[in-house]
Amino acid sequence: EIVMTQSPATLSVSPGERATLSCRASQSVSNNLAWYQQTPGQAPRLLIYGASTRAPGIPARFSGGGSGTEFTLTISSLQSEDFAVYYCQQYNNWPLFTFGPGTKVDV
Amino acid sequence: QLQLQESGPGLVKPSETLSLTCTVSGGSINSGTYYWGWIRQTPGKGLEWIGSIYYTGRTYYSPSLKSRVTMSMDTSKNHFSLKLNSVTAADTAVFYCARLATNYFDSWGQGTLVTVSS
Question: What angle do CA B98, B104, B106 make, to 5 degrees?
Answer without folding.
Answer: 50
